[in-house]
Every structure is written in structure tokens, then in C-alpha cells.
Write a structure and sequence with these properties.
- The structure is a single chain.
- This protein is an alpha+beta fold and 221 residues long.
- It has a domain of 154 residues.
- 31% of the residues lie in helices and 15% in strands.
- The chain contains 6 helices and 7 strands.
- The strands form 3 sheets. The protein has a 3-stranded mixed sheet, with helices on both faces. It has a two-stranded antiparallel sheet with strand order 2-3.
């Protein structure tokens, strides 16, 4: 299949009540008062510019570029990004497709319901992969992604709940039902189950280790 990644700069749309921790700590000049839905947080553990591990230069820099969260290893990477954001976002999108595609919940276009085939497009919107059958459906997605994200969330929950590998909270390590009904959240197009809303807040500050743990559990490690 021809892989076409469309880097799309869209305003983040609050389709979920689960939000990222305060992004004003980033020092970014854009979006200081905005918060990012947990499902749309930057999913990579490497800097969008330098490619270094986040945390290797101190606390990562969180930046909002036209509604989309991006992270850097240090403040020095921000000017480079601002000079040519399309260049760096294209590389980020390639990595996101590689990360999210294996567990994508559907083999049909989310708009037309047609089977995905040679002309299908892998579109990244606000750090989320959406697979569509053609350019026309890609344009529909770009126009208003919120309804698509809601539908995608339901597909992810329906598919990944059946094979969810853990019976304990990925944050507290307590049994998932220890605080009542578990809370389902979506991170990087991945279903994550936690025992309570408090763990959702902890998860939002650094979701990468959780995704790594889930991936290992799925492999039986």
C-alpha cells in the first residue's frame, strides 16, 4: 500500500474531558492557556528536532504548534523547529504512523466504510493516525476531525478491550477494580485502563513508559 502521510496543522478540538497537565510550563509562546486531550499528546519519547531521548537534557520542552503538541529535548530546538515546522512534523508523522498502525482498529475507511487498499492514505492529525480510502475522505477529516476521533475512540475500545493484557492499573499497579469501575482512556490510539481519575492525571504527565509497558505485556514479556 502506498503510504502517504499528510501533516495537518489543526486546532485541537476538546472531544474528551481527559486533558494533559499544564503545558504553560513549556515556556512556549503559543497555546499557554490551552490543554491537550490525552488522546492527542505527543506520543514519541524522542525530540521532534534533535531526535534525542526526551529527558536527556532535563525536563522536555512542551510546545503547542497551531493546536498540536510537540516536545523537544531542550529550548535550543525550538528556534530550529519554528524556522521550518513542516520539515520536522513530516518526520514525526512518519514515526507516529509506524507506532500506531500495527494496532489500528479497522481495515475499512472510517468515512466510506470501503476496504483500505492501494490508494489508502495514512493521515496524521493532532498526533493521531487516521486511515482513509482516498483524498476526498482525507479532506473530510481535515475539515472537522472531532467526530472522527470520537468514532475512532469507540473502535479502539471495542477492539483492544478484547485483548487488553493487564489486570492491574498501569500507574498504581493496583487491581483495575480496586477503586470501582476502571477508567478507559486513549493514548496514542491505544486503550489504557487505570483504576481511578487520579491515575489519569499521573498518566497524562508522562504516558510513554505506560505505552512501553503495554507493548511488552502484549508480547508476553
Amino acid at each position: 500500500m502506498v503510504k502517504i502521510v499528510l501533516a495537518i496543522a489543526l486546532m485541537a478540538i476538546p472531544h474528551t474531558s481527559t486533558l494533559q497537565d499544564d503545558e504553560a510550563k513549556s515556556g512556549s509562546s503559543k497555546g499557554k492557556s490551552k490543554k491537550t486531550p490525552l488522546s492527542e499528546v505527543y506520543p514519541l519519547d524522542t525530540c521532534a528536532v534533535a531526535g534525542k531521548k526526551l529527558g536527556s537534557m532535563g525536563d522536555p520542552i512542551v510546545h503547542i504548534h497551531e493546536g498540536r503538541q510537540v516536545k523537544f529535548c531542550c529550548k535550543g530546538c525550538l528556534p530550529s523547529f519554528n524556522k521550518n515546522p513542516a520539515k520536522y512534523l513530516a518526520k514525526v508523522d512518519e514515526k507516529i504512523v509506524k507506532m500506531q498502525k500495527p494496532n489500528y482498529p479497522a481495515n475499512n475507511c472510517i468515512f466510506s466504510d470501503e476496504p483500505l487498499g492501494p490508494k489508502s492514505k495514512d493521515v496524521v492529525v493532532n498526533n493521531r493516525l487516521v486511515r482513509v480510502c482516498c483524498g476526498g475522505c482525507a479532506r473530510k477529516l481535515m475539515k472537522d476531525p472531532a467526530p472522527t476521533f470520537r468514532k475512532l475512540d469507540e473502535q479502539i475500545k471495542a477492539k483492544q478491550s478484547k485483548t487488553y493484557p493487564l489486570k492491574t492499573c498501569v500507574v498504581s499497579n493496583e487491581p483495575l477494580d480496586s477503586m470501582g469501575k476502571p477508567v478507559d482512556v486513549i493514548v496514542s490510539n491505544t486503550l489504557v485502563k487505570v483504576c481511578c481519575k487520579g491515575c489519569v492525571r499521573k498518566l497524562s504527565s508522562n504516558p510513554t513508559p505506560v505505552l512501553t509497558r503495554l507493548k511488552a505485556a502484549q508480547k508476553g514479556e
